[in-house]
Amino acid sequence: MSKTGRRKRNSRIEIPKWYLQAGVVLFCIFILGGGFYNILENPPSIIPLQNGYSSLHPYYTSQTATEGYVVMITNLFIFIGFWMIYKSTQVAYDRTGANRWLMAGIVAVFAGLASNYALIQIKQSLL
Questions:
Q1: Which letter, b or e, does each residue of 84-112 get, where b requires 16 or more Cβ atoms within 10 Å of its Cβ?
Q2: What share of the chain is helix, strand, coil (3-state, %, to 5)?
Q3: What is the pLDDT of residue 28?
């Protein structure tokens, strides 16, 4: 019993903190990539256009399933890049290792942002 007179209950299942953090990040990536839209609307993977087929929807208000998955992957690059940048601050005793983590993180963030920008530019060119 505790000092307040209530009985403490210990949870039998302990989920590691790392799993919870990874789960929250993956859920955020799922939401940002339009995962709920993909589930509820069930959009097609490929759309026929006048001169062929496209995996990108030509309108900004809609997306294909493939486009949603690509956006999820590019957002994952951004999150991993920020994690690498954070990791570079944790290995301050090893200057070379910290610089590698930092440079890899900056490249991953830049790659994710550039690919999201490229997707927007490709969507604009489809109109």
A1: bbebbeeeeeeeeebeebbebbeebbeeb
A2: 65, 5, 30
A3: 95
Q: How many Å from the N-terminal Cα to the C-terminal Cα in the chain? A: 68
Contact indicator for 74, 119 with CB cutoff of 8 Å: yes
Domain boundaries, the chain: 17-126
Local structure of residue 81 (DSSP, 8 states): H
- 26-47 residue pLDDT tens: 999 999 999 999 999 888 888 8
Phi, psi (rounded to 5 degrees) for 33: -85, 0
- Give the relative orientation of helices 95-126 and 65-90 as an angle to the nearest 10 degrees: 160
In the block, tokens 């097609």 appear at 44
